[in-house]
C-alpha cells in the first residue's frame, strides 16, 4: 500500500483526531506552537493546494525542514529564513510534523480542504517520521551554494538571478535598500563578479570559493 493510500485509510481513534474547517485547524496549530517547540518537518507535493497546511505560522527560531516537489515562489522566503530545503519530484501527501510528536496531514490527500488529521499515536507518528526521513534522504538541494554564504546572502542572490532590482530585493526581504546594496557590493568584490547578474550566475548552483586575494 502506498503512503498516500495508507493515510487515506486512517480512521478516527486514539491518537488520531479529525479537524474540520480552516479556522479549527489554524486555531489548533496556534495552540500546538504556543509552547516551546524545536523542529518542524514540512512536506508539500506539487499537487497540494495552499490552504490549511504549509502556510501555518511557526516561531522563527524553530528549525524547519521543507521538502517540496518543485521550486516555487516561496523558495526565497525559505532561503532567507535559513530553512533546510530540498526537492523531490514525487511526494505522497502534504504534511507538517511538529517535534516528531504531532503530525497534521489532510484527511483526503486528493482534497486538502476536506479536513486534517491530527496524529499523536506514537507508532503512527514514528512511521510518518521514518517516511519523511527516507524521502528527505532521496531529495536534492535546489541550489548548491558555496560554503560561507549567510541565509540573507543566499536570498539576495536568488532574487538577483530573477532580475530583481536592489529596491525589489529590499522590499521582498523586509530590509533597507542600503543594506541590500552593501551586501551585493561585498559579494561582487568577494567573488570577482563583473555585475549583479554575473554574481547570481557565479553563485546560484555553483561550488565556488572566493578568489585568492592578490598581494
UniProtKB/TrEMBL annotation:
For this protein, the record's PANTHER family field holds: DNA-BINDING TRANSCRIPTIONAL ACTIVATOR DEVR_DOSR
Q: Which SMART domains match?
A: HTH_LUXR
What SUPFAM superfamilies has UniProt attached to this entry?
C-terminal effector domain of the bipartite response regulators (SSF46894)
Specify the species. Catenulispora yoronensis
Q: Can you say what this protein is called?
A: HTH luxR-type domain-containing protein
**Where in this chain does the record put each HTH luxR-type domain?**
142-207
Q: Which UniProt keywords apply?
A: DNA-binding, Transcription, Transcription regulation
Give one Pfam hit by family name.
Answer: GerE
Amino acid at each position: 500500500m502506498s503512503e498516500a493510500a495508507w493515510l487515506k485509510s486512517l480512521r478516527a481513534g486514539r491518537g488520531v483526531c479529525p479537524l474540520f474547517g480552516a479556522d479549527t485547524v489554524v486555531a489548533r496549530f496556534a495552540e500546538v506552537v504556543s509552547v516551546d517547540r524545536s523542529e518542524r518537518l514540512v512536506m508539500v507535493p506539487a499537487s497540494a493546494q495552499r490552504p490549511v497546511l504549509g502556510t501555518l505560522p511557526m516561531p522563527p527560531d524553530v528549525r524547519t525542514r521543507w521538502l517540496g516537489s518543485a521550486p516555487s515562489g516561496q523558495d526565497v522566503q525559505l532561503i532567507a529564513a535559513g530553512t533546510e530545503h530540498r526537492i523531490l519530484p514525487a511526494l505522497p501527501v502534504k504534511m507538517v510534523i511538529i517535534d516528531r510528536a504531532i503530525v497534521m496531514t489532510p484527511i483526503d490527500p486528493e482534497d486538502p480542504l476536506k479536513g486534517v488529521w491530527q496524529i499523536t499515536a506514537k507508532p503512527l507518528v514514528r512511521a510518518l517520521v521514518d517516511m519523511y526521513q527516507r524521502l528527505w534522504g532521496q531529495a536534492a538541494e535546489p541550489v548548491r551554494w558555496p560554503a560561507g554564504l549567510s541565509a540573507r546572502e543566499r536570498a539576495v542572490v536568488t532574487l538577483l538571478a530573477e532580475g530583481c532590482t536592489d529596491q525589489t530585493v529590499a522590499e521582498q526581504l523586509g530590509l533597507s535598500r542600503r543594506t541590500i546594496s552593501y551586501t551585493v557590493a561585498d559579494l561582487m568584490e568577494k567573488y570577482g563578479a563583473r555585475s549583479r547578474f554575473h554574481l547570481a550566475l557565479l553563485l546560484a548552483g555553483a561550488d565556488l570559493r572566493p578568489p585568492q586575494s592578490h598581494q
